[in-house]
Amino acid sequence: MRLINNLLILSISIAFASCGEMTDYSPYDANTSQRNQNAKNITKIQEEQQNSDSLVFIAISDTHSNYSDLRAAVKAINEMKGISFVVVCGDITDWGLSKEFEDYFGLINRLNIPSVTMIGNHDYLSNGKLIFNKLFGPTNFSFDVGNYRMVMFDNVV
After folding, report:
1. pLDDT one-digit tens code per residue, 103-118
2. Dihedral over Cα of 129, 130, 131, 135: its sign
3. The dihedral of CA 57, 107, 129, 94: what is its sign?
């Protein structure tokens, strides 16, 4: 009987040890490698635009559907001249998973200009709001750029 119990414990231990990859996409994971990216980028925007009397920005949305489209958009935006910043209007993830936020951040961070990211309804799923708050900051915020006030409003809830 003792041999059977030991074999059972060993089998269960091996099974759990081999499941490491299964926890990479837990809906409860809220770890992020970066913090408060919107505040950091807003500071850059304000510094770069403080003496400008005009403002040109690009708004994109729903980047979660196909990250290859986001990759292409980043490349196209990097080739444009005279753009002050990019506003991403939410839905950057499918399921609000930390891995999806990290994938998005890895792509949007390739921009040559600052970006500001808003939250969308898909981003609220799982622990998405918590992850968003850590990675980007508050879901409602505003900032001034020269004579302009940019208001970012979370209308999901």
Report:
1. 999 999 999 999 999 9
2. positive
3. positive
The span from the CA of 109 to the CA of 105, in Å, is 6
d(CA 40, CA 116): 9
The domains found in the chain, sorted by start residue, are 29-152 (3.60.21.10)
Segment 20-73, tens digit of pLDDT: 555 556 767 777 778 899 999 999 999 998 888 889 999 999 998 888 999 999
SS3 at position 18: coil
SS (H, E, C) 109-157: CCCCCCEEECCCCHHHCCCHHHHHHHHCCCCCEEEEECCEEEEECCCCC
Helix (H) or strand (E) holding 86: strand 85-88
Give the C-alpha separation, 156 to 128, whole Å: 13
Determine contact, residues 96/121, Cβ cutoff 8 Å.
Answer: no
Task: Please return the burial class of 107, using the count of CB atoms within 10 Å of its CB with bins 0-12, 13-18 and 19+.
Answer: middle
Task: Report the predicted TM-score, pTM, of the whole model to 2 decimal places.
Answer: 0.81
